[in-house]
Amino acid sequence: MTRVADLHVKVFVDSADLTEMTAWSRLPYVRGFTTNPTLMHRAGVCDYRKFARDVVAAIPDRPVSFEVFSDEFTEMASQAREIAGWGDLVYVKIPVTNTRGEPSYRLVHALSHDGVKVNVTAVLTLEQVDCTAAALRGGAPACVSMFAGRIADTGRDPVPIVREAIARLKTAARVELIWASPRELLNVVQADAVGCHIITVTSDILKKLDWIGRDLAQVSLDTVKMFRSDALCAGFSLDDTEEHE
Asked: Would residue 198 count as lying in a domain?
């Protein structure tokens, strides 16, 4: 069974909690970070620029992705160029379309071929993978974030789709596929097995990484101990006959 030390997939933490991100950066198997406007909003971030600069200052040696938030391509381009200037290891997340469903491939091509490290996000279809690969081919180092968890949410198995996406991205050098929005620890093992380059994980999954490869009999015993401990803490009893008189 795979152990954490045996994983080839790179683990990136998906967070907008600076204290948490700084702590996770001390773990040797955390290779990078991503965030997005939704996570930042939930974390109470009000000043986008300050938060991002604080992250880069606190974690200067790992790649980190920050996302544009405009819905207009001209403004996305302006935001992307500013964000890219925040650090040499900064990747700029560009959504694969805007909210009107208009594809962003021309913008992705322009930015990538102008030296901006792009992370094309919210990718779910192989057609989107093909178009993104074409836009990135010959450009700067880049990532494609395939939202495998959201594919699974529709009742589809994301594994064969991710496997095919990896194969199709081989036509674009220096482009890595990210297994994004994982739902459980098993997804880390699945991403590793299909040769995915990167997987983003939230803190709840990251905390379980040392469970990989654990003996199932020991997990069973630990579960029984948990049930027993919780029953004692709750003070449960079926011996009080007065309640039934």
From this structure: yes
Domain span holding position 199:
4-213
Residue 223 is assigned to a structural domain of this protein: no
Residue 169 near residue 129 (C-beta atoms within 8 A): yes
- Is residue 232 a part of any domain in this protein? no
We report the CATH number of the domain holding residue 113 as 3.20.20.70
Q: Tokens 């391509």 correspond to what residue? A: 73
pLDDT tens readout for residues 11-36: 999 999 999 999 999 999 999 999 99
Identify the helix (H) or strand (E) that includes residue 64.
strand 64-67
* Cα 60 → chain centroid: 19
CB 94 within 8 A of CB 121: yes
Cα–Cα distance between 67 and 56 in angstroms, integer? Answer: 14
Count how many domains the chain has.
Answer: 1
Strand ranges inside 96-208, DSSP E: 118-123, 142-147, 175-180, 198-201
User: Residue 213: what residue type?
Assistant: G
Asked whether residue 229 is domain-assigned, the answer is no
Q: Is the pLDDT of residue 242 over 80?
A: no
**202-232: per-residue pLDDT in tens?**
999 999 998 998 999 999 999 999 999 999 9
Concatenated DSSP letters of 3-26? -GGG--SEEEEE---HHHHHHHTT
Mean pLDDT of 98-106: 98
Kindly list the catalytic residues: 93
